[in-house]
Amino acid sequence: MRKGLDLLYDAAAWAAAFFMVGVLAMVLASVLGRLLGFNLRGSDAYAGYCMAAAAFLALAHTLKRGEHIRVTLFLQRSGARVTRALELWSHAAGVFFCTVVAYYSVRLAWQSHVFNDISQGNDATPLWVPQIAMAAGAIVLAVAMVDELVLHLRGRHPSAAAGAGTEHRE
């Protein structure tokens, strides 16, 4: 199970990297278009779609590597029981909020598809297409948060608490 989850997080990170290259491609195409006298319609919108996809798809991998911003001031100054309680509470809250974001991201993409919602730009992109990456990233983040909570409940110290890559202490 661990290998499968780590593969999921890594795949999302590779997809985020792909979309970052997409941002670069759109910006370069736009700049070259201006230099060569042609207009690439929708390049700004597509750069934005790629940026949103990259941000959401990178969230789970960033969490599992312990790179999310954490306020550890209280954790460092409290005892083991209080630290464990705070960690459990924060991960449970994280699971709740990430699940809500995932649910509404999927719902947004589905409603955009059902209502045939298109972008306001001259490219008229169906909005559900770029929203899929946002929804996928939110789902993978929710899975990663559940993974971290389960590790805490089992008495292991996930990567964010350990501060050591994706290694877990027992």
Tell me how many strands there are.
0
Decide which structural class fits the backbone. mainly alpha
Q: Percent of residues in helical segments?
A: over 70%
Given the structure, what is the number of helices?
6
Radius of gyration: 19 Å
The domain tally reads 1
Question: N-to-C SSE series?
Answer: HHHHHH
Biggest beta sheet attributes = none
Essential attributes:
75% helix, 170 residues, disordered C terminus, mainly alpha, single chain, 6 helices
Could you outline the blueprint of secondary structure elements for this entry?
Blueprint (H helix, E strand, L loop, with lengths): L1 H35 L6 H22 L8 H5 L2 H35 L13 H26 L5 H4 L8
Helix pairs in contact: 1-2, 1-5, 2-5, 4-5
Structural notes for this entry:
The protein has 170 residues and is mainly alpha-helical. It has one domain (2-162). The chain is built from 6 helices and no strands. 26% of the residues are buried. Mean pLDDT is 88; it is low at 160-170.
